[in-house]
Write a structure and sequence with these properties.
7-stranded mixed beta sheet; 890 residues; alpha+beta; 5 domains; 29 helices
Length: 890
């Protein structure tokens, strides 16, 4: 327990410092007086006795220091001294302090804001039970491409695997909730009874599905509703259980309300029905027998790994099961494997690369800010060179000086961190609004404790990084040289060397950000200028639902085209057409098919072909050229042989050098009972999924709505004569007037859709461009500061040059040349860095390579121009140097 007594004694000494100092002073003077009296008795004069006593006793201050080290807390006492000294030093240089704090605030604030988004999206665990063991199980085709799952395959997977605790299947779709109130569209999930236990979710009111309710098709018409729907449509009725909800004209009994905030795995659902009840909501699809048909790949599958089972082990076992099923069902399961992935991939896959690119960008900005502040610190360090040399000469250790530097830098970065966090707090909502993605509903971006810890650690790391440069300078400091009158030149030489290194780093980092922003902006230019294959101006799209039991048989097929004919006569409308789905909302279905006289189509190849259904006049309304054959007409009904049109890329792929008109294709295998369909026309290629889509790689088969097997919901495409934005409300009202029971939703202009589709590239380009501009500004300021300091330090040299015949223009070229050399070194470094870093941006680029020579050359030239401008003012100052004044400068 001796250490405890020592610790208590030191702590007591720290808090009783003044009293102990007074007692120590009295005691030391008593000892000194006794020695003096002893010397007087030996015959010395009082003055000689006092001098001899001091010499024998030793230095009083040294003894006091030893005593303090043994009886106090020297580390904390020294720290307090360092903090006080650092505060006095910073207050004496308000300009330096303000610039340094503001620079660090920009760097730390940007990093804090972006990290808060990264933490909320990429680092926060999913709101499900034990999400680390939750995985998504997909079918896969060639090249590891994910595919939805056939329900019979899910049943076999669940029965045969030994690596999962449980598995669940579900599918998502849209439904129309109708009744006494106004109809509304909601998102729905059809789920197996294992779905909710797997996610760890229990009903807030009532119960979830039972195994019996998911084992007997069309027997138990029960439903769960979301908390939001319960509040919105049922006014939070506590007696909701047992009441009916009408979904797609079929009545379901409400058996439970799910917890507030839970929107299903799809993060958008408000209604859940048993998997085996989907045919009740969509009776037209009953003919496909989703529950028993292995050729219908529609469902999503979740599973929970058993404890101790790795993802690799699960993948290996599921591949074994998939191979077994391929042998048992070669017709449907050929070339189909299994892919097991963490569920986090579904939520963060599209966000990860862009957010990490932005995080890297703001890290570069902080490094440039650090380089600027380091240059300022080096400048001050050179000015304080004699002070530091005197401190070393008086006995201070170099480690003591480094600790003083660290204390000053910690205070600087602490102030910068506080200001930066304040900036991040003010700008966080703006940042989230600028980002082009819709984050999951359970994601909440805010400056929580974890983000503040990150900002604190970042500030500490920044302080340590800033301390490196004066510490290196101190390590090589020659005390004798520093105490000479020429010390300023010696210190300036060291500062200039480190300053050059920092400038090169700033230019390189700024170039990396500029090239990244340039690539994104060039991608945006390509996205906006590349033709989508149709004319998007003056186009409006309105999606609507066709009630199942109102329009039966052929009337359902004719509803959309006939509605288009009526809307085409509406004032301000040029033409209109119906379509199963409109571009940039969803690409369409992917179905296995066969081409007459062609080898069997692999699953992987079939998955690259989209299937669309459109009505007459669609190609005219969209302004898509018909290259061969004819368009659909109202005569192409259920009473005549089936016909299709194909895109140019489809015809080129399967009938190269041939006339496609008259050729035949069918869905499924060539020996299936599905009817053959005759090709009547070839249309131009268009982009359906996104502006990034390659129509050549993703051909389209067009069927006609008049011969469709399933009519549930569709879209109306309207080309207007007047500005399309002004037609949105009138067209919606007209459709509701024609049929009030038909819900209309997803009303937008095509320009809005295309703008939303390019939002990702536009927003990330804007943010990266802002960070690049900030980096360029900081780099320019840093270069200006270094060159100004360089000119100041070499004023005497400038005078000598002028005395010996150099012209002001020679000095101008000397300084500009020095800046350009540093810029070229930085550009070379930045070019290498950008080539490596920009490869991470591949997913964000469109028709742009990570290395674009022309873009690189233009940005390098622009950066060099900025460097020259930053050097211009110091160069002009050097040209005005008077030789006599310069020679007396020292």
């Amino acid at each position: 327990m001796n250490w405890l007594r020592v610790a208590f004694s030191r702590l007591l000494g720290f808090f009783r410092k003044r009293r102990l100092e007074k007692d120590l002073d009295v005691e030391l003077h008593s000892h000194l007086e006794l020695l003096t009296q002893e010397n007087i008795r030996r015959g010395m004069s009082p003055e000689e006795a006092r001098y001899a006593a001091r010499r024998e006793f030793g230095g009083l201050e040294q003894i006091k220091e030893i005593y303090r080290d043994q009886h106090g807390l020297p580390f904390f006492e020294t720290l307090v001294q360092d903090v006080r000294y650092a505060l006095r030093t910073l207050v004496k240089s308000p300009g330096f302090t303000a610039v340094a704090v503001l620079t660090l605030a920009l760097g730390i604030g940007a990093n804090t804001a972006i990290f808060s988004v990264v933490k909320a999206v990429l680092l926060r665990p999913l709101p499900f039970k034990d999400p680390a063991r939750l995985v998504r199980v997909n079918e896969s085709v060639e090249k590891g491409r994910r595919s939805p799952v056939a329900y019979p395959n899910y049943v076999d997977w669940r029965a045969q695997n030994a690596v999962f605790e449980e598995m669940a299947a579900f599918g998502d779709c849209e439904m129309i909730v109708s009744g006494t109130d106004k109809s509304e569209r909601v998102y729905c999930e059809q789920a197996s009874d294992t779905y909710f236990p797997l996610l760890g979710v229990s009903a807030a009111i009532g119960r979830a599905f039972t195994p019996e309710e998911n084992s007997a098709p069309m027997k138990y018409a029960v439903a769960l509703i979301g908390y939001g729907l319960w509040e919105r449509r049922y006014a939070s009725d506590p007696a909701i259980l047992g009441k009916m909800i009408r979904l797609n004209d079929f009545d379901f009994t409400i058996i439970g309300v799910l917890p507030k905030g839970f929107l299903g795995y799809s993060d958008s659902s408000e209604v859940w029905i048993p998997m085996v009840m989907r045919d009740a909501a969509w009776p037209q699809t009953a003919q496909y027998d989703f529950l028993h048909n292995r050729d219908i790949h529609f469902h999503k599958v979740l599973a929970r790994l058993k404890p101790g089972i790795s993802l690799e082990t699960a993948q290996a076992e599921m591949e074994t099961i998939a191979a077994r099923l391929a042998r048992a069902y070669p017709k449907d399961n050929r070339q189909r494997g299994v892919l097991v992935t963490p569920v986090t991939e579904d939520y963060v896959r599209s966000f990860r690369a862009p957010l990490l690119v932005l995080l890297g960008a703001v890290a570069f900005v902080l490094l440039i800010a650090c380089a600027n502040v380091a240059n300022l610190i080096l400048t001050r360090s050179a000015a304080r060179d004699r002070e530091l040399a005197i401190r070393l000469a008086l006995g201070a250790s170099r480690s003591r000086l480094v600790r003083q530097f660290l204390t000053e830098n910690l205070l600087l970065t602490a102030a910068g961190a506080v200001a930066g966090v304040t900036l991040a707090f003010w700008g966080l909502d703006l940042l989230v609004s600028v980002l082009p993605v819709s984050f999951p509903s359970f994601t909440h971006v805010n400056l929580d404790g974890g983000v503040l810890v990150f900002a604190s650690v970042l500030a500490a790391a920044t302080a340590m990084l800033l301390t490196v440069f004066p510490a290196l300078s101190s390590a090589h400091r020659n005390i004798n040289e520093s105490l000479k009158e020429t010390a300023k030149s010696t210190a300036g030489l060291r500062g200039r060397r480190m300053g050059r290194v920092l400038v090169v780093a700033e230019v390189g980092l700024a170039l990396v950000l500029m090239i990244g922003a340039g690539l994104l902006l060039k991608s945006l230019s390509h996205l906006l200028t590349d033709s989508p294959g149709f004319r998007p101006d003056h186009l409006v799209t309105l999606r609507f639902y066709v009630p199942d039991r109102k329009y039966e048989g052929d009337g359902r097929n004719r509803f959309g085209p006939q509605l288009a004919e009526r809307i085409a006569r509406f004032p301000g409308v040029e033409s209109a057409a119906a379509t199963f789905i409109d571009p940039f909302l969803w690409g369409g279905l992917q179905r296995g098919f066969s081409v007459e006289g062609h080898a069997p189509i692999s699953n992987a190849e079939a998955d690259t072909v989209y299937y669309q259904e459109v009505g007459p006049n669609y190609f005219h309304t969209m302004d898509i050229p018909i290259l061969q054959g004819r368009d659909f007409s109202m005569r192409d009904s259920l009473k005549v042989p089936l016909v299709v049109m194909v895109s140019e890329s489809f015809a080129r792929r399967y009938w190269p050098g041939q006339d496609p008109v008259g050729k035949r294709i069918k869905y499924g295998n060539a020996d299936s009972s599905n009817p053959w369909m005759q090709v009547i026309g070839v249309s131009g290629n268009i982009k359906y999924n996104s502006l990034r889509q390659d129509p050549e790689a993703e051909p389209v088969i067009y069927g006609t709505l008049l011969q469709s097997e399933v009519i549930i919901n569709m879209s109306l495409i309207v080309r207007t004569r007047t500005p399309p934005e002004a037609m949105l409300v009138p067209l919606r009202e007209e459709m509701q007037r024609i049929d009030p029971a038909t819900p209309v939703y997803n009303v937008a202009t095509f320009s809005q859709r295309m703008h939303e589709d390019s939002a990702e590239t536009r927003s990330y380009g804007l943010l990266l461009g802002l960070f690049a501009a900030l980096a360029l500004l900081l780099a320019a300021v840093g270069i200006y500061g270094v060159m100004s300091y360089w000119v100041t330090q070499r004023t005497r040299e400038m005078g000598i040059r002028l005395t010996f015949g150099a012209s002001p223009g020679d000095l101008h070229r000397l300084i500009i040349g020095e800046g350009v050399r540093l810029a070229l070194l930085g550009i070379g470094t930045g070019a290498l860095g950008s080539f490596l870093v920009n490869r991470a941006m591949t997913t964000l680029l469109y028709e742009v390579k990570p290395f674009e020579p022309v873009l690189f050359g233009a940005l390098a030239a622009a950066l060099t121009g900025v460097v020259v401008l930053a050097c211009y003012v110091p160069a002009r100052r050097a040209m005005r140097v008077e030789p006599i004044v310069a020679l007396r400068y020292e």
